[in-house]
Amino acid sequence: MRLALDRDAIQAGICYERYPRSGCGLVTYMVVAPEARGQGLGERLLRDAAQALYAGGAPVVFGEVVMPDVVSRDHGDFEGATVARKRIERFQRWGARVAQVRYVQPALGPELHRDGELMLIVLAGEAPLPADVPGEVVRAFVEELYAVTEGGAPDERIVVGERVPLAIARW
């Protein structure tokens, strides 16, 4: 976790982790205070986190974002699809690409359910992202994520091919 401070006030923060078996990184949460937005702070935090994970050996660094066209109450219907689209567009301006694979987030704790309304993005490090990533890397990450969070196999709706294309989402 990293925090951006202005004296004793938190201006922004980011949480990320690296999974030891697959080696992949995952940015799990990022927030920027309203008064600190629009100054490049979020982009710097995201780039620094991705670069730190790649420098530590991560073959791929993922993030999870809400799919704009299926925003439900679970993701704060108050936000709506427009905010979700703008978030993805912002990450894409910062070099991220959408992994073209069906994704279902595992249940993150007891009494919680799996979330099929998210998609995986791949975050860029210092170099631009390739056109695709090996399916075995994506599969290894998803298997490890499910093993850690649920103690079992991934959701059967997740089918990973030999290669996973990385694309720019357009609406």
Question: Can you summarize this structure?
Answer:
The chain has 171 residues and is of the alpha+beta class.
Please outline the helices and strands.
Blueprint: E1 2-6, E2 9-18, E3 25-32, H1 41-55, E4 61-66, H2 80-93, E5 97-99, E6 118-122, E7 132-134, H3 135-149, E8 163-167
Parallel strand pairs: 3-4
Antiparallel strand pairs: 1-2, 2-3, 4-6, 5-6, 5-8, 7-8
In total, the number of strands is 8
Largest β-sheet summary:
8 strands, mixed
- Strand residues, percent: 25-35%
Structural class: alpha+beta
Shape estimate: globular
Describe the structure.
The protein is of the alpha+beta class and 171 residues long. The chain is 26% helix and 26% strand. The protein has an eight-stranded mixed sheet with strand order 1-2-3-4-6-5-8-7. Helix 1 (41-55) links the parallel strand 3 (25-32) and strand 4. The protein is globular and about 45 Å long.
Features:
171 residues, alpha+beta, 8-stranded mixed sheet, 3 helices, 8 strands, globular
